[in-house]
């Protein structure tokens, strides 16, 4: 657990270090932000100063032009008209006055757009000082007056310049009253936001109308309280000296000047006239926005740090809890892997056993099936009832299975059905069925139904039994031929001798003939038994099929006619030769046709046909298909699987030995062929023989 907490503590230390570093860099870079702000404000001030200077230069040029007009020869009325035109052309001019060399007023023109009361806003005495200063300077030098004392606004200024001595009336001074507010309009834009204050000192060093009232008040208290505002004192001194630049006023002084609780960035520059005079201008901008932004950033960082710290603490708690659960999870994982391995092994075992296993849920629905059973079930059987797994089974069979499952789940014991003949799939077979309840039971696998298909086992048992019968027949045939054949031959010889002695008309002749006939019948049976027991591997050769089939028809023609039957022979054109012993192949066809005739009533039909077998697998040897079909009485389903057994016959006693079809099947298998029988009562019988085609030149084929 200590090792788990250590990474969390390290993360907290790293986070604290990052926050401290961020705050340090913010403090360090704050001065850079202030300097950047000062540079931007200085650039704005310089741009505004250039605009004001350009406007003042235009006013100076107009004043010089007025002086040049008055210096030209002409009458007083002409000069008045020229001055009137100039007054109306320049919007900032409010009045034009001309003073003689003696200081007396010679001309006064007032702008008609201004009120007539403007003549009472100033007097010649108010302009006397300005006129006197202009007379002391050469013509073209512009002198500016302080704000006129009785002007309604603080923007009315008097600009004066001396007239040349060679002007009419010997010279003098021309004075223009100018509304300076439009000239200083660019400076107003500098103080458009609430965080900036404007300080404008006139030519005479006193605050102008554009100066913020709080700065005007502070300027007025410099003489008595200058030690409390050292920054403003230094600013005024540098402005009066005509300097330009920037400086920073501390927070306490900025608060006294009404700039808020933050440092103030000061930029200052003079608005210069061509005559060398200047109007100093300064802007004082609070850095409260920067500080607010800084505080907001610090607040957001602090909040983020708190959130991250909380997340780290929560993560640490989670790590501690997760660490305590890790061992349990790993142990559970090991158990899960073991269970998964066992499940996979069990599933593989179930999928590879030939016995079908079906899993039923608690609601008796199919939840799973192994491979042996799912291959024989419909694809959509999973999830449905038990009847869906066996769509070919009838309702009583399904009911029997359900009763078996119910009995097993009811008492918790395995219930079984042994060797039951059931039609679960397409054909009827014999099955062992086991219902196995599971303990402890789960909802999806509640009961197992195990189905063992015994059909193949029963078929093998039948084949073994048939083989035993064949062996018994062989031993029996050899014994009978040896023990009975010789005495029967002697008895027959004696019977023929007596018949010759008695003559054909003797009363005992028919009885002796019967003895000879019965002995011949027994001899034929013995020969069949001997032939069956001595059957050797076939000496196969290429036999033309069509002539052999027609020869069988010729041999049996008399028998068919005698029984009043119809024998049809159909051999496809171009049939290949078959690999067979000709006599044995002919024996097979004769036995099959005679059996078909025996099954038919008079008027019946027997059909013998031969064609190529189209059901061969790709790559297999070619086979011919020989069929013998009749419309006789047919064979009962219970006897279909017994017709090839030795001594089994459905004929009446004395009409058959039950060895004919047994020998046919033996000959067919001995040649590598197959024989199939399809029969039903009242429908007739069809026997199909698939016989190998003779090998081509260069091929070898062994028949056993």
Give the low-confidence spans: 698-704
List the strand order in the largest sheet: 2-1-5-4-3
Output the structural class. Answer: alpha+beta
Please bin the fraction of helical residues. Answer: 40-55%
Beta-strand proportion = 15-25%
Task: Estimate the mean pLDDT confidence.
Answer: 77
Q: How many extended strands?
A: 21
Shape: rod-shaped
Radius of gyration: 68 Å
- Note the main sheet: 5 strands, antiparallel
How far apart are the termini? 82 Å
Tally of helical runs = 18
Outline the fold blueprint.
Blueprint lengths: L1 H70 L4 H14 L3 E7 L5 E6 L13 H12 L7 E2 L11 E8 L8 E8 L5 H6 L5 E5 L12 H8 L1 H4 L4 H11 L4 E5 L1 H6 L7 E9 L5 E9 L1 H65 L3 E5 L5 E4 L1 H4 L11 H4 L5 H17 L3 E8 L6 E9 L9 E7 L1 H29 L1 H18 L6 H25 L7 E3 L1 H18 L3 E6 L6 E3 L1 H18 L5 E8 L10 E8 L29 H11 L3 E7 L3 E9 L12
Parallel strand pairs: 16-18
Antiparallel strand pairs: 1-2, 1-5, 3-4, 4-5, 6-9, 7-8, 8-9, 10-11, 10-14, 12-13, 13-14, 15-17, 18-19, 19-21, 20-21
Helix pairs in contact: 1-2, 1-9, 13-15, 14-15, 16-17, 17-18
Give structural notes.
The chain has 704 residues and is of the alpha+beta class. Helix content is 48%, strand content 19%. The strands form 5 sheets. The chain has a 5-stranded antiparallel sheet with strand order 2-1-5-4-3, sandwiched between helices. A 5-stranded antiparallel sheet has the order 11-10-14-13-12. A 5-stranded mixed sheet has the order 16-18-19-21-20, with helices on one face. Helix 1 (2-71) runs antiparallel to helix 9 (288-352).
